[in-house]
Amino acid sequence: MDFTPDSTVNKLKLLFILDKMEIPLTENSIIDICTSRNDWLNYMDCKDLLWQLIEVGFVYKTNGESDDEIRYGITYDGRNCLSHFYNRIPQSLRESMTTFAKENRMNFKRSQEYVSEYFKNPDGSHTVVLKIKEPMIPQSLLEIKIKAPTRHSAVLTCKKWKDKAPNIFEYLYDSVIDS
Question: pTM score, two decimals?
Answer without folding.
Answer: 0.71
